[in-house]
Amino acid sequence: MKFFIGNWKMFGVPKSINILNKINSFYSKDKNRNKYRVIMTPPYTLIESYAKNFKNKKISIGSQNCYQKEQFSSDTAAVSPYMLRSVGAKYTLVGHSDNRGEGDTNAMLKDKVKYALKNNLKVVFCIGENKSEKKNKKTLNVLKNQLTKVLEKKFNKSNIIVAYEPIWSIGTGKIPTLLELEKTTIYIKKVLKNIFKKNSPAVLYGGSVDGSNVKIFKEIKEIDGFLIGGASKSSKKFIDIIKNYYR
Ligand code: PGA
Predict the structure, then answer these.
(1) Which residue, of 16, 22, 89, 168, has the greatest Cβ tally within 10 A?
(2) pLDDT tens across 149-167, in order?
(3) Domains in the chain, ordered, with CATH?
């Protein structure tokens, strides 16, 4: 099973649901539809209405983040996994580099994963090195650290997806070479097999994915799908990614 996950970031108002309606009508008729899942993560403000709208449809709605406490607390503006699940979210991103940049620590991320899973949200756990770590050949070490400091064997592996997003590639149009990405993805799966003492969860790639470079990425059979930012805000661009992946 492949995954095409759209991350809207700070984008969208109620009428932006038109974008999802178009993607959903493509998805429900696509001859390849049983080979993949489509998940969209709009901002918090739209989760409830979108999840209602797509309740019995093929697209699933997720959140871009969640707070590191389970249910209710006195943390202003925080939204817990319990609250997200109660309005219909099925997935949540955890550890996006934007949020790590705002101060999310490994300990916080571990609690986010734990409470999200406990509340029946599937977790898309994001990892990735920055430009200077890459330049100093620290990529594999950084990724190993990010994985082993947060994920644990006792977490339900089948509800976890890992998204490899090199920070230098997010929103920049820069992408890793085929060889680099293949090597990195194989390494990530090796670390995950070690953590879970079994098969690895799905591993996605994210960072400037678009309708043309997806043809390159599909050569790497270890990649189980994509986390798509910019291109997920346009139904045409998002559909082109899926079409060109299966072409
Ligand atoms: P991008 O974003 O596709 O715009 O590079 C990816 C992400 O941040 O998830």
Answers:
(1) 89
(2) 999 999 999 999 999 999 9
(3) 2-245 (3.20.20.70)
